[in-house]
Write a structure and sequence with these properties.
With 465 residues, the protein is of the alpha/beta class. It folds into three domains: 183 residues, Rossmann fold (3-Layer(aba) Sandwich); 94 residues, 3-Layer(aba) Sandwich (Rossmann fold), CATH 3.40.50.1100; 144 residues, CBS-domain (Roll). 34% of the residues lie in helices and 16% in strands. Helix 1 crosses helix 2, helix 5 crosses helix 6 and helix 7 crosses helix 8.
Length: 465
Amino acid sequence: MADPRLDGTQIADSVIDLFGGTPLVRMKRTMEVEELPAVLAMKMETTNPGGSSKDRPALEMILAAERSGELQPGGTIVEPTSGNTGVGLAIVAAQRGYECVFVMTDKVAPEKISLLKAYGAEVVVCPVAVAPDDPQSYYSVAERLTQERQAFRPNQYANPNNPLSHYKTTGPEIWEQTAGRITHFVAGAGTCGSITGTAQYLKEQNPDVKIIAADPEGSVFSGGSGRPYLVEGVGEDFFPAAWQPELYDETIAISDADSFHMARKVSETEGILIGGSGGMAVAAAIQVAKRGTPDDLVVVFNPDSGRGYLSRVFDDAWMANFGFTNECEQCVGAVLEARSATLDNLLYVNPDETVRTAIERMRANGVSQLPVCKNTPPFAAAEVSGSVDELELMEVIADDSGVMDVPVEDVMGPHLPTIGVGQKLERALEMLHTAPALLVLSDGRPLSVLTRTDILSYFDARADY
């Protein structure tokens, strides 16, 4: 019931009433204006109370569950999330008296976990490098917790109210804000709720509006296997219910490196702090705007703020450790370049290959350690599942010669410590005091193994005799 004391005021009755109605802002400084024939504007979902676009489906899914009776007063909500949906659900739950349990992967930034806890939610963290049907995956854990606690699971990946929320709000807002002049809509695809719901509305208004899905390299949407990649909250290793490719005119794959560097560039030049997924969407939108015309109006959907990625995308040490930035000129990469081995060929062994194969590979290439990696290069660090060491294998085989024919994953040790290709050589020397070798990363992907011998050879070649 409305409070008559608020009549005539501009005071919202609840924070829920502030969901949506986010502004559009023109982007002019990220790229020089003359380089972009088309107008490029950003839909600023950061102004939602939860700081992201996920406030919209969170409210719609809970309201629908209340109407259907799936969610009873005082009930519990369980949902797997990369963070933003959890925040939206937590806000609505706080207003309507529900408990929340959120399941996240260990890929997400730690501040996202802290944020959900700040809203009073319980958070369960699961490993990212497992298949969706693995009992440890965040999908499986969420399903188990839902059963154990007799909870309601919104299931944003399959819930039709996810795209419906954007059909009802985001699409109409963009159409009105652009006076119907929008020609292209660019958005990341994750659960596909935002891009599909918005696309449905825009296509109804004008079938000629082009819908472009921005996707991380490696995601199934752009033809990958589903992982690995480091950008959070977008891409998938399966096709969710809201995936409707018939609505999308194009899918553009963007690398982790381009996504992160664009996020930092937009934040510094436009004064708009965006995350890695926003950087990915902007990178794709710039491609679209560059080939456009002066009559084109490109709207890029920015899903959230960079404040949730301060310990990742905006942390110089994190970026350097994954090989996205250089700390110096004479760094780890200089040692690899001076080496005779070809940098493009990372030596590795698959988890299901035998110990015998690993030993033969080490002997043939004159190395003492091998990373154990799933699939084939290029992969991100999350796909490196372990390592094998010559001395450790020798000890295991001495106890049981039958080990020679068992899979490497049965005897492998932890994965090698990682260092970025652009990090200082002093850092590598420090790490090699306790580690036999280091796994060098470039743009988030394994590049090579660095040993003490490599560094000694580098110093020897530079010595002035």
